[in-house]
Amino acid sequence: MTDAASLPYRRNVGALLFNDRGQILIGRRTDMPGAGGPLEEGVWQCPQGGIDEGEAPEQAVLRELHEEIGTDRAEIIATHPQWLTYDLPAALVGKVLGGRYRGQTQKWFALRFTGTDTDIRLDAHQPAEFDAWQWIDLATLPQRNVGFKRDIYLTLARDFAACAQPRP
Hints:
Elements: E1 9-18, E2 23-29, E3 44-45, E4 48-50, H1 57-69, E5 74-79, E6 84-87, E7 103-113, E8 130-137, H2 150-159
Parallel strand pairs: 1-7
Antiparallel strand pairs: 1-4, 2-3, 2-8, 5-7, 6-7
């Protein structure tokens, strides 16, 4: 068994992608139970991913959007002032994230989607991260099945609430 305390945190970015109605995009993970089933099943999350060596977080978040949802048609409208950190559940330490991390420390961004729904292509890169996506109200994010990331999403729903306004 891997000792979590001896492992570092992986640097990561996360994207709250807002549409013109003030809703955010979430995707259902392909590697978790419930994938491929009815939309009310599965584990859902916002696009996120690791920061490459020498890459700025602002670059990483647009790259991750492109890799996970097939488009980077977005502009950054806000940045969370802090890095938010979570620990993996003990059963996942040493098994996910290459087995090299105890969790992730994340820089989160709010982005305004500048494309159309047809620009979102979950199959743009393989293997696909998500098998389904939908727009939801930010305030409802923590109540979705977001697994062990719930505390992060509670913070984001509070701290980015002002970004969730519809555009005129």
